[in-house]
Amino acid sequence: MDGTLDHVMMRVEDLEESLEWYGEHLEYEEKDRYEGDGFTIVYLGPEEMGEEEAFLELTHNEGADLEMGDAWGHIAVRVPEGELEEHYERLMAGGVEDYRDPESCGGRYAFVKDPDGHEIELVQRDQGTTWSLDHTMIRVEDADEALGFWARKFGYEGAGRWESDTFANYYVKPEDAAPEAMAVELTYNYDGRSYEMGDAWGHLCVRVDDLTEDWERLMVREAEDYRDPESNDEMYAFTRDQDGHEIELIERDLEAESMFPF
To answer: In this structure, what CATH number is given to the domain that contains residue 66?
Structure first.
């Protein structure tokens, strides 16, 4: 199993508005799109992306009225070290909503929102393309179970942690992942709260070497048999973690003409 996080999918209500927003403010370009029956999928990312950097997938379902749950948290994009304030002010000058500025976050990070209310964190990093995806945060109800899931099922290991008096953030990545590869941030609140999934956030996607073999390996490791390869015409598959977060498995030929297996 490759294990690299290939993309994160979010649903949007107005596709063209979202494409314009990400293109204008984060300098994302459309990498590929698929027009289905009643839905459209678009892959986005910075113009120059490393092979290990993850894509953003925007999905638009016709007539959808999306609900933003709180089980999914945010995506984080990179800006160079020491340039957080500069990039945040550039977003403000471009008309982006002033949500959580660097000063309110101790000068370490900041947050904005896209047209659908998806939260986007700005983090300072020496590695990766500017605006590339650094991590995706999901909330979990049991930190031990969540860390065990990613370790046992996908072979991920700890890539950092931050623990406070009320909550903790745990970062996980594949073993020997490239520095620019996207991580999963698991946020655990100590107060025992539960979360609503909503449908505005979609899924994480893990790149695999062989869909059939890696799916069978997941089944041996007792992953949930949610949507197996056969039910998806052997193009992709889905499992779910202990909290119900959907995780897609897909083979990816980075040299292929199309990003879609359809």
So the answer is: 3.10.180.10
